[in-house]
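Now for today's protein:

——
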Amino acid sequence: MGNVPLDLKYSKEHEWIRLDGNKVYIGITDYAQEALGDIVFVELPEQDSEIEAGEIAGVIESVKAASDMYSPLSGKVIEVNKELEDAPENINEEPYEYWVFGLELADISELDELMDTEGYEKFCAEEV
């Protein structure tokens, strides 16, 4: 199933979430990038936009398909990873190093809805 770091939270849409104070950084998991194949384009969310949990935050396109990326949490987009505009394939190489966007959380309790590593591994095993 690939690499699943212990210090992150995970969503059912295969995003990882790294908490940093009241900010989070969000990317896609190793499982997701493997399923997508070679990533060729990343549409980033708009800087300073407000986003609700479950809303589409961007799009990740691979040679196989285009997939919507959903925000697992609500908040304000405070950073986008512009590096991915020129090198989207970085997600394939290091999915847990290359976050897609950063959020200032609207409600930190939303983190409780996410899975820990063990829960995510179990979720992925059931999907296969």
Notes: Residues 33 and 105 are 25 Å apart (CA to CA). The first helix runs from residue 30 to 36. Helices lie at 30-36, 83-86, 90-93, 117-127.
